[in-house]
Specification:
This protein is mainly alpha-helical. The protein has 30 helices and 19 strands.
């Protein structure tokens, strides 16, 4: 849906004619484009003649809101708007939705843009002081957008335009200028622009399916995709090929949507996806993914240890062996690793030693020397280093990139890469170790939503991390975007992430607010903590920097409400697996929200999980200390943790 000056004036013109009892007829082709685009947006309808237009229900509703806003002096009359002013566009709808999700608060990123359009105003309250919130007109426009359905019409000219542009994300200046193609795409909701300034574009999920349809179909008519063709396809799928008229069948065959037997070809399969998205509004939730340098070095290290075990069977990829390999890495050759260890040391020791840490990083130290400097008593440095490595191993387990197994023969727990982990390893071998941040991956996955586009910062992060290039996701970008949806997530929370999570309310919060909760020297550490929390599905960071808890995050926060922040890794993949199995084999008491556990259930759980007893008992102790499990039952906190596990994998 797109409303610029010309579209708004067209609505006024139709209404003025209706009030006089006249039909609105537009005979000059150059003047008809705004009306055509409004028709595709379902704001106007075509009358008995193709040059006659009347307001649809949604268009009349939209115009009524616009007039009231003008009367209330929230907005100037459209006749005085700049020709390029976008009163409503995909970025405006996205700004309104981001505010709605966050208890109507807009935030500094988008507040002024919404005020400019009459959709928000400044308010003051005791909690936040002065801020910006959306008004009832913004909510009314959002409802119009959500409930109205666009029409799809792709002619040969527009088809060729779509085939020549990248799917995005890409900078807007990469789009060809001069015609009406971009307006036509946005009117049909096939393209989205970034908030607040429309710097970046991307084809959304519907737009990408239209592009894929065009990539595989035959451009054999002036009209390539239309509502009529979609209706014919719907009949074919519901009633069989016999339900089609001879003309419908010939058309679908000529466009290579079906073969001579009425079976869907590749183009037809994508056209079916177009139909499905349009009818069901089946857009995907925006998910993301994150890996840090140490996570990646461990992924690279495990196959090296496996290779060494061929000549020495006693060597297996245990946590100790992984630590041994990582100790051999000189920090001067691993800038990213140096930064990772630095963040973890800062989290453990507090910001007071950050300047001292920076000085030590300037020296050519090994990991061992660095940790020895800060933890000199006995072998405490080795324990601290092992804590860092084990936390990274938990992260990799939580994303199902590695799995742990117990070797009866060697009496050791060792790790191996899953198939997804091997895919990441291949990318690291090709592209090298670098941060894969949640915002960068989200720059790609946000296009799976209805009108989302990455803000300029996410886009730049994705470019820097080699996830976007040439106006489309790179091979790496496609990998991490797919992992965001395909990996099985097992909840994991570190001590520092717990500190962050404890401070985040359900709604009405922004990234800047969480930074203000910590000393300013820890901003980088907080950013990385948010990366992990978002990649795990516990928080959503919106393009306007709103920070909201997901339903899974709410359950996690409640489960952890009684856990002290001094507890390291209060949620681990082992704990979650144990709780989940105990729930399956225990007896649920719905009224008490508890699962009773008999002593025999513990033995059964160990057998099902194929976990060695020592590791099982260690996780069970943490679960009891965190109050997930009582003497003989899974408590409400444990049940919430299990629910979070279910939610992040829906």
């Amino acid at each position: 849906m797109l409303i610029k000056k010309e579209h708004a004036l067209a609505l006024y013109n139709i209404k003025a004619n209706e009030e006089k009892g006249l039909s609105c007829q537009i005979r000059v082709e150059s003047e008809s484009w705004p009306y055509i685009e409004l028709n595709l947006s379902n704001m106007v309808e075509i009358g008995s003649s193709s040059i006659e237009y009347r307001l649809s229900y949604w268009g009349a509703n939209l115009l009524a809101n616009l007039k009231e806003m003008v009367d209330n002096k929230l907005l100037a009359h459209p006749s005085s708007w700049d020709e390029h002013f976008r009163w409503i566009g995909s970025e405006v709808i996205a700004m309104i939705e981001a505010s709605l999700i966050n208890d109507d608060y807009c935030g500094s990123e988008i507040g002024e843009e919404l005020i400019k359009r009459g959709f928000a105003s400044k308010v003051s309250d005791a909690k936040r002081g002065e801020s910006v919130k959306i008004n009832r007109f913004a909510k009314a426009i959002y409802e119009i957008y959500k409930n109205s359905h666009p029409k799809i019409l792709v002619d040969k000219n527009l088809a060729n335009f779509i085939l020549t542009i990248g799917e995005g994300p890409a900078l807007v200046h990469m789009l060809p200028k001069g015609g009406r193609e971009i307006e036509l795409l946005e009117s049909q909701r096939l393209i989205s622009f970034s908030m607040p300034k429309s710097d970046v574009y991307t084809l959304n999920l519907l737009g990408k399916e239209v592009k894929e349809t065009l990539n595989h179909c035959a451009i054999s008519f002036d009209t390539i995709i239309s509502e009529d063709y979609l209706h014919s396809l719907e009949k074919l799928l519901d009633l069989g090929v016999e339900s089609l008229s001879e003309g419908e069948r010939e058309t679908l065959e000529a466009l290579a949507f079906i073969n001579e037997n009425g079976e869907l070809l590749k183009a037809g399969e994508h056209l079916f996806n177009v139909l499905h998205i349009l009818r069901e509004k089946r857009y995907k939730r925006v998910r993301t993914f994150n890996l840090e340098a140490l996570d990646e070095e461990i992924i690279k290290t495990i196959p090296q240890i496996e290779e060494a075990s061929k000549s020495n069977p006693q060597i297996v990829a245990t946590a100790d062996e992984i630590k041994h390999y990582l100790l051999q890495l000189p920090l001067k050759e691993y800038k990213a690793l140096k930064e990772h260890y630095g963040r973890r040391l800062n989290e453990a020791m507090g910001y007071q030693k950050k300047e001292e840490l920076k000085k030590k990083f300037a020296e050519a130290l090994s990991v061992e020397e660095l940790f020895k400097h800060f933890y000199e008593k006995g072998n405490e440095w080795e324990k601290r280093l092992m804590d860092v490595i084990e936390e990274s191993l938990m992260t990799l387990e939580s994303f199902s990139l590695i799995e742990a197994a117990f070797s009866e023969k060697k009496g050791k727990i060792y790790y191996y890469l899953t198939d997804k982990g091997k895919e990441v390893l291949k990318d690291l071998e090709e592209k090298g170790v670098r941060e894969i941040s949640a915002p960068a991956v989200k720059a790609i996955t946000i296009s799976n939503s209805q009108f989302g586009a990455p803000n300029i910062k996410w886009f730049e992060d994705a470019k820097e991390e080699h996830l976007i290039g040439g106006e489309a996701p790179t091979k790496s970008g496609k990998l991490y975007a797919s992992l965001a949806y395909e990996v099985k997530r097992i909840p994991h929370i570190s001590r520092f992430e717990l500190m962050i999570l404890h401070k985040i309310p359900k709604r009405g919060y922004f990234v800047e607010d969480i930074y203000n909760e910590f000393d300013k020297t820890l901003k980088e550490e907080v950013t990385y903590g948010l990366n992990k929390l978002e990649a795990r599905g516990f928080v959503d960071i919106l393009p306007n920097d709103a920070l909201v808890l997901t339903e899974a995050g709410e359950n996690i926060k409640l489960a952890l409400s009684g856990v002290p922040e001094s507890m390291g890794n209060p949620i681990t993949p082992d704990i979650v697996r144990i709780l989940n199995v105990l729930k399956e084999i225990g007896n649920l008491y719905v009224k008490e929200q508890k699962v009773r556990i008999l002593p025999k259930n513990i033995k059964t759980a160990i057998s099902i999980l194929k976990m060695d007893k020592e590791r099982f008992n260690k996780a069970l102790v943490v679960a009891r200390n965190a109050k997930y499990i009582g003497k003989s039952s899974i408590n409400e906190a444990g049940m919430r943790l299990i629910r979070a596990f279910e939610l992040v994998n829906l």
